[in-house]
Structure prediction request, 275 residues.
Amino acid sequence: MASIPYFEIHAFADPDLAFSGNPAGVCLMEAFPDDQVLRGIAASNNLSETAFLVPADAASWHLRWFTPTVEVDLCGHATLAAGAVVLEYDLGTPGTARFDTRSGRLEVKRDGAALAMDLPLIGYKPASRDDAIQSALGIEADPRDVLSVNRIHGAGYQMWVMDNESAVRNARPDHGKLRQLDTNIILTAPGETGDFVSRFFAPASGVDEDPVTGSAHCTLAPYWARRLGKTRMSARQIGPRPGALEVETKGGDTDGGRVTLFGHAPRYLEGRIWA
Prediction:
């Protein structure tokens, strides 16, 4: 049985709001054990994602992400959380945390009191409204746009764009119905106090509603950049556990571009896991 250093980080926390942001587990390991062990730790943590880090060299880490049920190809908030740990404890190149992942090389850097994270842009294409999805989301108004997202995790993804923030905030999802549809849903609208808001439902990845989803903003950012005519925007995720971040698009709004996410990632707890 190994003793594993463990941290819980609240990624994309709102500095003005206690108990906000998306909790992510971070495990520092000497080598990756069997996937069954990683899935077991993630399931026991019962957070939307746990990040597992193994040294690659003196300046970088191998990084993998697990929900309580599956390994995923990209997780933004758990990458920010991993970067917060590496930077706080000086476990890599000063000022920069570098990770080798299924989605390529990712970096987290200090940005004043916050952190900045570079991720691949994830594109989208038009799709059709589905009555079953609309019913499961618990929204009455029809969406302005329905988009199919070019990705990820092996699950289908859609983005539903509503006319106003209240339509997103007041959605009353039936998680039982959503689990039967085998698709993940980004729900978004223009923001009342920022550029845009969102919620993210990920039943196909074993998560009913994710509090603040970094990877979803890899699609949200190019959509809103094109619609608002801006490259840097403020964003809030407004589910039961809210959070805040800024996003910036680089290299256009199609696949091959990049998205930088800016946010806070305070440490909530530190300890050890015996597994």
